[in-house]
Amino acid sequence: KASSICLAMQSCQLSISEGAVEDYRSNSIESSGLVVDSIIEDKDSPSLIRFESIDFNSGVITLSFSESVLASSVNASGLRLHDACCSSTVFIELDVEKAFSNGTTLSLQLSEPTLNTLKASETVCSSTSGNDCFVRFPSSFVTDRRLNRVASVLDTQLPSTSFAQSILADTIAPLVSEAHVDLNSSSFTLTYNEPIKVLETDSAK
């Protein structure tokens, strides 16, 4: 299923080595090659096996499927992370910059704005236990090599495969990306590369 072999009749040939088959009188078959007479197409939809992980440092989400999927077919429209398994109305839409596949494993590189939204959330994927982090996507999300659409994961489904098995917490300190000083108001503005929580300000630091 994962290869480019037998995508069409002309690319599907059977090679038989000499001596591979004998009749009842021990007469061996000669080596031969022949084009197959028919191909029964793969019509099975790939399905989600596990929501493997979400890494808040790299911004990568990893999903495992029942068969190989095409990274180039990823359509992130409708891809979401929810705070609960069923009938959840709290979610974050995901914007994907890149997708990588290694057989049945699909890795999604989230955009920086999406990652920052997740980092600031106190309801979606805020716990390292994964009990508030559930993936949802429609059938248009990804296909296999035979262009069969994935089985959708809907908000009404049970959490057995759709909750994050591993959440790698953000351990990288925020960095100042911009600094502006206003001499008229005697103030300055700092912009960071990710959301920050300001509890108090120590001007000495």
Q: What features would you describe in this structure?
A:
The chain has one helix at 112-120, and strands spanning 13-16, 32-35, 48-55, 60-65, 80-82, 91-93, 96-102, 105-110, 134-136, 164-168, 176-182, 187-192. Helix content is 4%, strand content 30%.
Q: What about the largest sheet?
A: 5 strands, mixed
Spatial strand sequence of the major β-sheet = 7-8-4-3-10
Assembly level: single chain
Please state roughly what percent of the residues sit in beta strands, choosing from under 5%, 5-15%, 15-25%, 25-35%, 35-45% or over 45%: 25-35%
Mean pLDDT: 83
What is the first-to-last residue Cα distance?
59 Å
Which structural class matches the secondary elements?
mainly beta
Order of helices and strands: EEEEEEEEHEEEE
Q: How much is the radius of gyration in Å?
A: 26 Å
Helix content: under 10%
The total count of helices amounts to 1
Low-confidence stretches: none
Number of strands: 12
Q: Name the overall outline.
A: elongated
Briefly say what this structure is.
The chain is mainly β and 205 residues long. The chain is built from one helix and twelve strands, in the order ββββββββαββββ.
